[in-house]
Structure formats: structure tokens, C-alpha cells
Amino acid sequence: MTIQITTPEWVHNAVFYQIFPDRFSRSSRTRHPAGVTFKPWGTPPDEQGFQGGDLNGITDRLDYIQQLGVTALYLNPIFSSASNHRYHAFDYMEVDPLLGGNAAFREMLDECHRRGVRVVLDGVFNHASRGFWPFHHILENGLNSPYADWFHVHGLPLRPYLEPGENKPINYAAWWGNAALPKFNTNNPGARQYLYDVARYWIDFGIDGWRLDVPADIDDDEFWREFRRIVKGANPEAYIVGEIWHPARRWLQGDQFDAVMNYPFGKAAMPFFGGKSFRVFDHNEFKYLLAIDAPTFANRIDEFLGFYDWQINLAQMSMLDSHDTPRALWMMGEDKSALRLAALFQMTMPGTPVVYYGDEIGLTGATDPHSRGAFPWDHRALWDEDLLTFYRKAINLRNTHAVLRTGRYARLYAAGEQVAFVRQLGGSEAIVAFNASLMPAKITIPTGNLSSLAFRRVWPDSGGETITIPAGGLSLEIPARSAIVLVNQS
Q1: Do 120 and 150 share a domain, yes or no?
Q2: Cα(first)–Cα(last) distance of the chain, in Å?
Q3: Mind listing the pLDDT tens digit for each residue in 14-71?
Q4: CA 61 – CA 54 distance, rounded (Å)
Q5: Same domain membership, residue 291 and residue 161
């Protein structure tokens, strides 16, 4: 039976802002028990401590977030955990008290919704932590524990903590062999139902969707089909997006996820816009990428857009960077002109753009944990105000023109260091042209894919300058490291 693929319409029109809660904003409204101390705000992130960012801090900064033009938040994990990134949950039903607990999340969620901002949470359902209560039950009771089959136990007593230098293997399944992350046995009906109950509980609480951590590691399509039935049954407009770094057709047939984190997007954009400044480095899917020319760039766009149904393409998270990668600015050799071009590309392409907190003011950093630095709220001199203005204008461009959000895509031109494409939605058309070169460029775009002849320039703002396309094609002069966006007069 063929499934009609649909994805939430609000996602097609959203701009996401990803927040790593411990490092975004610390609020004086959050009261902690006496004796609780944090690292000083702005401590180098490689120290791996807690710096005290919390959910009240996010609520306090919603004016800033809305001024950026953002319409949705993706939060890294917020449930009780003994790690600053909180991918080691020990209680899935409670927001970490260090973040302000359930009450702070209730306030944050309600205030976001009052402002029309959606909230998606990070769901870590492949593995828990050594402190998760069923795993602790096995530690205390061995195979006498009723929860013994919730995990993959290979021997007793469990060895969750090894002495420094001890090379004994752990005796239970864990994510990438990390003793701190025992892997659920999702074939156990109790463990399976618990995870479904968690998913449903927070949807009923009011969240707008789930970002799924390493979902491919639960190698069970029926697990994810039932997950979708439960989540969509509670909220048909909930967004389900998986962290899968490679082509993911298996999960994107309309019966499991709505989308994945589209890292191939960044793998295309940054080597092209970064050019000679793009760093060659060894990290996950960005391993040893080299600078590319416009035809290679355009081919990569066609490739990742060709992977999926159009409904899926509209819901894909268009990523440049995240908590799991170096910062985009770092990857592009600290070249802010490259970051500006890549960000504008995000805002003019199909898919849902995601801005990693702080990119918009010029935060930089190598591979995590270096990419997880604290937002310097009290040190405005560290902000790149021009870059922030650029992000606000680029996001506003997308929010203003529906054709840039949901219009069809077609390549118009790709040669040297220049590329152009058209977005088409009903009678609306937008031409987007980039010059990644350090020199000005003049290109002529053929008109065969265009239905309009009269356009106005909307980027950079030119006061509504009108451009009429002659029969021989559209000639554009594009300054170095710049872009032009035209929309038709319909």
C-alpha cells in the first residue's frame, strides 16, 4: 500500500533556533538549593562543567529570539541527567532541577506558544544512563530485578564503572561501548511501552515535536512506526525529526519520521562558500571535505533534494552546524563573508533553516565540546553586531516571501564560483544568485525555466528597483562574496 506522505505545514514555514540549555542563558529567577555552585559563565567549554544555563533563562531571552525572526526552538535534552549535555537521562518524566524543573519548562512552553513559537525537544530513546532507575535496580538486584531484561545484560555483576587504566570490557550493551550509556532492549515490551509513554507524556504536556537522538541505532522499523502512531495520535501536527547524518530513505516513507537533520546541506554549502578558507579536518560526515566549485555544489543540491518526496524536503532541518560539529564559522576558517553567504543560502532554500545559538553574533569553536560555549550576554563588545543585523535581515527575507519557504527549486546557472536558482510557487517566482568569488562577477542566466519577465530586487535592498528580463537572458553583476535575490511582480 502506498502511503500519502504529509509533513507538518508549520515546519515548512519555520525558522528554528537550536539551544544547548546549559550554555544559553542563566536566569536570576531560578532558585537552587544552598550549596549548588556552577562554573563561572563563559568558562572554556572543554572543562565540561555545568555553567548554569536554564529554562527561565530561555524565557527571559524570548524578546531577543523573536527579534531574530525565529519561529521555533529545538532544545538539546532537558531531562534530569548527570551530564551538562543531558544525553545521559536518569528520569525522563522530570525536567532537570538545575534547569528549573517542570515548572520552569511549563512557563517557558506557555510563553513560547503565546508568542507563536513552537518547541521541539530532544528525545534520547536508544540509551539511558547508569543512574536511570531501572538500570540502578539491576545494579542492586542482579537478575532478580524485574527490569533485568530492559537492557542487554551479558554478565553479572554489572561493571558500570571501571578504574583508570582498567581494560576489562563492560558486560552490557552500551552506545558505542560507553559505559555511561546503557542501551535499552526495545524488544522488551515494558521498556518499549515506557519509551512510548515518555513520548506521549511530553506531547500531551504541549511540546510540538521530537528530535530523535541516534534513532538508527534502534534498528526496528515497527518501533518507529508505533512511535509515530502514538505521537501523531496525540498531536497530528507534531514534528518528528531524526538525527541521521546520511541519506535516510528507509525512515522517510511517510510511516516513521517527517524529516532528518540534513547534514548533507552543510556538506554542500560550507565547502563552496568557504572556498579556500574552508578547513580540512577529520570529523564525522565532514571528514576531509575539500573546497568545491559551483557545478559540484549545484550537483550536491540536486542530489540531496532528489533523495526524498517534496513534502519531506520541505520539512528537512537545513543544518550548517550543531552541538555535534564544529561551529560553522570555525569550519569556514573564521571567514564571516562565507558564513553570511551560507546563512543566506539557508534562508532561500527548501527545508527548515536551523540557526545554532550564537552563530548569529559570531561565536566560533572547534569540534565539541569547543562548539558549546556560553552565550556572552553580559559582554556585548564580543558580539558582531553587523553579523547579527545580517541574520535578522536574512531571516526576515524568508519570513516575508512564501516562495522562498515552500516554492519549487530549479537550477538556473552553475559555473566557476557562481550559482543561481529559481524558486516557484504558484504565480510567484524568486531568482537567487550567489557569487562566492573574491572578485566581482557578471553572469547571464537563461530564461527557459522562468515564467516571469519583470522582477524587483529584494536583496540587497534597493528600494524596489525593477528589472525586466530581455529575451537573451538575465545579465547580473554580482559584487564579490555577495548575493542577489529578485522576486517577480505578480
Answers
A1: no
A2: 40
A3: 999 999 999 999 999 999 999 999 999 999 999 889 999 999 999 999 999 999 999 9
A4: 11
A5: no
Range of the domain at 30: 9-126+184-400
Determine whether 47 is an active site residue.
no
Strand-strand pairing, 418-425 and 352-356 = unpaired
Spatial distance between the Cα atoms of 113 and 119, rounded to a whole number of angstroms:
8
DSSP state of 211: E
| 249 and 335 part of one domain | yes
pLDDT at 57: 98
**The three three-digit cell numbers of residue 188, written as one number:** 522488551
Q: Answer yes or no: do 216 and 334 share one domain.
A: yes
Question: Do 356 and 322 form a contact (C-beta atoms < 8 A)?
Answer: yes
Mean pLDDT, range 188-211, rounded to an integer:
98
CA 451/CA 104 separation, integer angstroms = 51
Give the count of domains, the chain: 3
CB–CB of 67/17 below 8 Å? no
Alpha helices in 177-220 (DSSP H): 189-205
Q: Indicate the pLDDT class of residue 490, thresholds 50, 70 and 90.
A: low
pTM over 0.90: yes
With bands split at pLDDT 50, 70 and 90, how would you rate the model's confidence at 339?
Answer: very high
Q: Catalytic site residue 149?
A: no
Tell me which amino acid residue 11 is.
Answer: V
Domain for residue 4, yes or no?
no
Give just the sign of the alpha carbon dihedral 32, 35, 41, 43.
Answer: negative
Structural domain includes residue 48:
yes
Write down the pLDDT at residue 110: 98
Q: 157 preceded by cis ω (within 30°)?
A: yes
Residue 253 Cα distances to 6, 220, 258, 307, 408, angstroms: 10, 15, 9, 11, 20
CATH code of the domain in which 422 resides: 2.60.40.1180
Integer CA distances (angstroms), 326 to 32, 270, 312, 416, 436, in order: 32, 12, 26, 27, 22
| 213 shares its domain with 155 | no
Query: Of residues 54, 213, 368, 429, which has the active-site annotation?
Result: 213
Tell me: pLDDT of 448 over 90.
no
Whose CA is closest to 16, among 355, 309, 274? 355
Say yes or no: 122 and 140 in one domain. no
Which of 369, 400, 431 is the last residue before a domain boundary? Answer: 400
CATH code for the domain of 342: 3.20.20.80
Q: Same domain for 384 and 269?
A: yes
Residue 66 within any structural domain of the chain: yes
Residue among 60, 243, 324, 335 flagged as catalytic:
243
